């Protein structure tokens, strides 16, 4: 990576002008209160993440409606994302560096799905062009730049509340909670929970600026990407980047989750949702730079926080070869990938 400038990229890589960012979130990002949630999508034993998803309505999830005065900064400075300046690591809070993910054919999905409701079957060949992808989840520090530049209010801030895992709340905040999600009572709507106050109004992110931003909706994520002169990856691009050239493996490093008994991703150990023992080094979220990168140089593409993709959610897929697939034309929810610090091997795969 660290391309010198966009002109050189055009000359050298005519088919590789795809700019991607992947965006951290937790699924409690999306919903205001339980009566605005649809029925849970999950039919098998899960963390209940989908129970907190806000269903699209009206103008939600329309990528062509990203107005709100958000300007694509790449238009002002077209060389920005490839410039040496943009890709040099000046301090620990600058984490929007990108890496090129090679194009080619790969096998997406699996013929041995763990959770049928995830719709990861069948295994099918996909061919995609090369693109660039952020090497880290989007941090609070990077998101703050966007918020300040645009006086941006996230959807959670507009709605006035967001979902938080009850084990992360103080007793004072718990006392204010009025209703939880019936299907997943450990998810509770907390007034004043948003990206700056992840565990409610009395919390802050001052010592977590290098952690992934959370309580970010798909619309928030898409607008952030637009401002950066990037976009969300398609699900196929995300999976290509995650697999890092390995075919038909469960994880981006192989089939064993803890090779040599070493954790390679931030997930949940212990009994969910009662106790996260932090055996992998982190109880809760970790800095985006934690854990070794996958073969393409991407950190925490598995675990830590879920990541938004551009695609609508779909559980049936054609087995025939797809070229640069972009998912269905419409849907009720967007695809999130990679799992989070709240996942266990028993809960999450897609
Ligand atoms: Ca952990
Ligand atoms: Ca992640």
Automatic annotation (TrEMBL):
Alphabetical list of Pfam families matching this protein: FGE-sulfatase (PF03781)
Domain Sulfatase-modifying factor enzyme-like: 95-349
Gene Ontology molecular functions: formylglycine-generating oxidase activity
Gene Ontology CC annotation, any one: endoplasmic reticulum
InterPro entries: CTDL_fold, Sulfatase_Mod_Factor_Kinase, SUMF_dom, SUMF_sf
Taxonomic superkingdom: Eukaryota
UniProt family annotation: Belongs to the sulfatase-modifying factor family.
The protein's name: Formylglycine-generating enzyme-like
Organism: Homarus americanus (American lobster)
Gene that produces this protein: Sumf1-L
């Amino acid at each position: 990576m660290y391309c010198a400038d966009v002109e050189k990229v055009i000359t050298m890589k005519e088919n590789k002008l795809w700019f991607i960012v992947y965006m951290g979130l937790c699924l409690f990002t999306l919903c205001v209160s339980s009566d605005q949630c649809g029925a849970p999508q999950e039919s098998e034993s899960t963390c209940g993440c989908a129970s907190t998803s806000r269903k699209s309505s009206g103008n939600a999830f329309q990528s062509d409606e990203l107005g709100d005065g958000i300007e694509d900064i790449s238009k002002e400075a077209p060389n920005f994302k490839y410039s040496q300046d943009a890709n040099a690591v000046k301090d620990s809070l600058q984490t929007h560096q990108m890496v090129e993910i090679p194009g080619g054919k790969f096998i997406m999905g699996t013929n041995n799905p763990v959770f049928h409701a995830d719709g990861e079957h069948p295994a099918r060949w996909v061919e995609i062009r090369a693109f660039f992808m952020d090497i880290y989840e989007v941090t609070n520090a990077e998101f703050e730049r966007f918020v300040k530049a645009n006086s941006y209010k996230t959807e959670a801030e507009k709605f006035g509340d967001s979902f938080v895992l009850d084990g992360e709340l103080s007793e004072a905040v718990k006392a204010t909670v009025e209703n939880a999600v019936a299907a997943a009572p450990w998810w509770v709507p907390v007034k004043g929970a948003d990206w700056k106050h992840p565990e409610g109004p009395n919390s802050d992110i001052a010592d977590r600026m290098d952690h992934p931003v959370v309580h970010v909706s798909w619309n928030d994520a898409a607008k952030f990407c637009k401002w950066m002169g990037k976009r969300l990856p398609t699900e196929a691009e995300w999976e290509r980047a995650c697999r890092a050239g390995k075919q038909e493996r469960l994880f981006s490093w192989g089939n064993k989750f803890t090779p040599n008994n070493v954790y390679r991703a931030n997930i949940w150990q212990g009994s969910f949702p009662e106790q996260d023992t932090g055996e992998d080094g982190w109880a809760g979220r970790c800095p985006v730079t934690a854990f070794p990168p996958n073969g393409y140089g991407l950190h925490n593409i598995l675990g830590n926080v879920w990541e938004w993709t551009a695609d609508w959610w779909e559980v049936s897929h054609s087995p025939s070869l797809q070229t640069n697939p972009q998912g269905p034309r419409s849907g009720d929810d967007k695809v999130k990938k990679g799992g989070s610090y709240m996942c266990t091997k028993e809960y999450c795969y897609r």
